[in-house]
């Protein structure tokens, strides 16, 4: 091994990194940094002062400056697939320590990714979005975690079909393709729901981090609680210390749900399904939304599968709860609906018991995607408030929160309730619709205000 070469490479990159850092400090515009933008919004009362949010913005601000000169490069990262330690002698370990990497950047400390967790509505996603908008690079993406995993599966399917030889390193091929386009990933709602996702996420992120990806992720759960008591969780557990090693973990630790502040000026988007008049009231509202058109059926092509739309016109779509959440629909289906239509009318939402986990999970995913695309939501339900749609602690007084630690749906439903309440507010209804398809319907909702 040429130790002089290692020393020269190390010294050169330390010097180059220092010069880049000095250049960044003196050339980056502090007035457009995440922390300054946050403080400006607090100063004009757009945001409320919150010490936990301020501390997070300080961390994001440091990362913002660190990434100004960051160049992603592949490097060796110890993964969670460990060799048999009984067969690894001292000489082997020593050799591995001084093993010359293909990238001299291995000797430079890489900026740590950031994993942010906290209760619903505490501002995680909002502050991450400020950071994302500030980053002056093209190779970035802000995406809901469900959407990212769907894209990942689609890429694997396409690469497998187009290149048979890629099967030998299919995951590596997908990662290479992804990182040709982006190296900064901002994930909203990082979650692990089943063993299939758990195994894919573990291997996928080991590859992504090894190739130089930087991640900002928000979640309702700390890393140690991901996939808590899930099936065969012992195969996922080694990923948790790896995630801790690659990320700074920050607890927002806030009891304030900011989505509920300023939402008192509701317009009627929630109807009582028990009232006989509700059907005619919803019909009247639908007529106003789609006039002068008549509703028709339609079909959406989702990755080669046909999704039947029973009622739609002029960007408005209507389903009953059983039609949309009682059937075998997946994240991709809800993304297709949320991204195409500006308004969803969802009727006859029932009370959901703890035994209806499949329906609860689909409803959570549906609301997440509607919220992600600023899709307006009009509902009728058989319960008094959205908090009663799924409330196992109220249904069974003998239950305690710790009894439901294994149920991801229970923890995620706090976010669903928060979003359902916010989606009734004038602030949410005034947001422009986000479309991803080429056919864009005019959002007629504002005409009803």
UniProtKB/TrEMBL annotation:
Query: InterPro entries under this entry?
Result: ATPase_AFG1-like (IPR005654), P-loop_NTPase (IPR027417)
Instruction: Tell me which GO cellular component terms the UniProt record holds.
Output: mitochondrion
Q: Which one Pfam family would you cite for this protein?
A: AFG1_ATPase
Mention one GO molecular function.
ATP binding
Q: Indicate whether Lipoprotein appears among the record's keywords.
A: no
Query: Which keywords are on file for this protein?
Result: ATP-binding, Nucleotide-binding
The family note in this entry says: Belongs to the AFG1 ATPase family.
**Annotated protein name in UniProt:** AFG1-like ATPase
């Amino acid at each position: 091994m040429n130790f002089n070469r290692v020393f020269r490479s190390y010294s050169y990159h330390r010097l180059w990194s220092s010069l880049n850092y000095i250049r960044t400090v003196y050339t980056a515009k502090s007035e457009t940094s995440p922390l300054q933008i946050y403080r400006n919004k607090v100063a004009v009362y757009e945001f409320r002062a919150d010490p936990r949010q301020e501390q997070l913005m300080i961390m994001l601000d440091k990362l913002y400056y660190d990434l100004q000169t960051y160049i992603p490069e592949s490097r060796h990262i110890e993964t969670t697939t460990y060799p048999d330690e009984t067969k690894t002698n001292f000489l082997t370990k020593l050799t591995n320590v001084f093993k010359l990497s293909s990238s001299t950047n291995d000797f430079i400390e890489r900026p740590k990714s950031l994993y942010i967790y906290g209760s619903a509505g505490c501002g995680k996603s909002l502050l991450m979005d400020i950071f994302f908008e500030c980053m002056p690079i093209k190779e970035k993406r802000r995406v809901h975690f469900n959407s990212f995993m769907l894209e990942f599966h689609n890429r694997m399917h396409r690469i497998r079909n187009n290149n048979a030889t890629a099967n030998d390193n299919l995951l590596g091929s997908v990662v290479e393709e992804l990182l040709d386009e982006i190296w900064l990933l901002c994930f909203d709602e990082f979650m692990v729901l089943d063993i299939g996702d758990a195994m894919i996420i573990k291997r996928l992120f080991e590859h992504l981090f090894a190739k130089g990806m930087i991640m900002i992720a928000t979640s309702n759960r700390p890393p140690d609680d991901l996939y808590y008591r899930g099936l065969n969780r012992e195969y996922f557990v080694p990923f948790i210390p790896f995630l801790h090693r690659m990320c700074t973990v920050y607890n927002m630790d806030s009891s304030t749900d900011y989505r509920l502040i300023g939402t008192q000026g509701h317009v009627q988007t929630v109807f009582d399904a028990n009232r006989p008049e509700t059907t005619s009231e919803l019909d009247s509202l639908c007529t106003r939304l789609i006039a002068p058109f008549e509703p028709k059926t339609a079909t959406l092509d989702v990755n080669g599968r046909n999704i039947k739309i029973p009622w739609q016109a002029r960007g408005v779509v209507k389903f009953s709860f059983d039609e949309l959440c009682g059937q075998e629909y997946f994240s991709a289906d809800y993304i297709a609906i949320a991204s195409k239509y500006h308004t969803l009318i969802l009727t006859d939402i029932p009370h959901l018991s703890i035994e209806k986990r499949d329906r609860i999970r689909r409803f959570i995913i549906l609301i997440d995607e509607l919220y992600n695309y600023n899709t307006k939501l009009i509902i009728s339900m058989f319960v008094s408030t959205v908090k009663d749609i799924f409330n196992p602690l109220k249904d069974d007084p003998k239950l305690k929160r710790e009894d439901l630690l294994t149920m991801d749906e229970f923890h995620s439903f706090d976010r669903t309730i928060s979003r359902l309440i916010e989606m009734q507010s004038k602030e949410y209804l005034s947001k422009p619709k986000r479309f991803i398809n080429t056919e864009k319907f005019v959002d007629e909702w504002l005409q009803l205000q």
